[in-house]
Every structure is written in structure tokens, then in C-alpha cells.
Amino acid sequence: MSRSRDLVFALSLAAVVVAPALAGERPIGRVPTPEEIARWDIDVRPDGVGLPPGRGTAKEGEEVYLARCASCHGEFGEAVGRWPPLVGGQNSLTWDEPIKTVTSYWPYATTIFDYIKRAMPFGDAQSLTDDEVYAITAFLLASDGIIPEDFEVNAETLPKIRMPNADGFVPDPRPDVPAGEPCMKDCVAEVKIIGYARAIDVTPEIGVRPPTD
After folding, report:
1. Is position 210 within any domain?
2. Is 154 helix (H, G, I), strand (E, B) or coil?
3. Model's pTM, two decimal places?
């Protein structure tokens, strides 16, 4: 046996011996620190849970919006090119081609803060301060008359703002899902594939080939 093959054999044997000692532990990586978790834990719920300290008004938000948002969404939220409009579309949701904007379609004002905070501006996400996000949120809401221009948006006032389409979403009872606590283990005895969307090998297979015609 060559020297290199001896080394490979020795390393393989060592892995077999060490593996049981690592069972049930984390052989790769480490437990994240509270500070690292906090940087990811930035989502905001409809009821306002998760909103950070801060404040902003529409007047303050206009300046930030023009500098950071208008190049894609237009100076008045009307959109530029292929980018979506942010305001307008009031009372259009019953039309054949509804205009779904942040202010006409979204049911919760807190969602505006949440989305801007996590995903905007495009290509430079999470670069805005909390005050800037509050101010931009106020600017969009005031642009469609949902709040007065001098209204201060903060963690206390934002969840109380009622959006035009607040009643447009209804709970889905999911009749196919049993009530109570969700099952998390051994919920289905056997998974059986009864159909395929298309024969392009995207449906998981368990010993069965999809039809080819």
C-alpha cells in the first residue's frame, strides 16, 4: 500500500472512531450570538410586534423618498418603467384589471414598514435607518390621503392606521387541515403521488416514472 493510500486509510478510520462522539452535537459551525440573531430578527407583525423605536412624518419622508426610492417608483409613487407603482388604485380592486398598490391592496400599514426595512432600496437593502423607514412609510400613506401630512408615524401609531383594504382579506379555514395543533412528525403513513403537473422530472419520484406522452 502506498504512503498516500496509508494516509487516506488512517483518516477514514479516524473519522469512523470520532463520528460517534459527535452524534447529537454540532460538528460544524457554532451557536449564534444574541447580537447575530438580533440582526436577522427584524420582521414586523400586522399588530405591530417587532416595530423598533423611531419616528417619521410625510414631510421628512418626501426628502428620503426622492433620494432613495423615486428613481424606480417615480416622484409621486406612480412607478418608472417596469417598476411597480406604490400609490393610487383606490376603489379599483373590483375592476377587471385592479390596480394593486401598497395603499390600495395591502391590508396592514405595518407591512409597509416591514417590507421597506427588510428589502428596500433594491440593491441596497437594510441601508435605511429606522427613522427613514418610518418617514417613507408616512410619505406613502399621506400620498393617498390615508393619514394627514403632519401625522407622526411610530411604533405606537402605525399599527392603529386602518388601510383601505383592511377588510379585503379573510381567514382561510383550510378544510383539508385538521383543527388543533399542527402535526410535526409521522403525520402521513405513506405519501402517494397521484398525478404529475408535466413530465419534466419536477415531481418527486418514489419508484415511479411520470408519463411521457
Report:
1. no
2. strand
3. 0.69
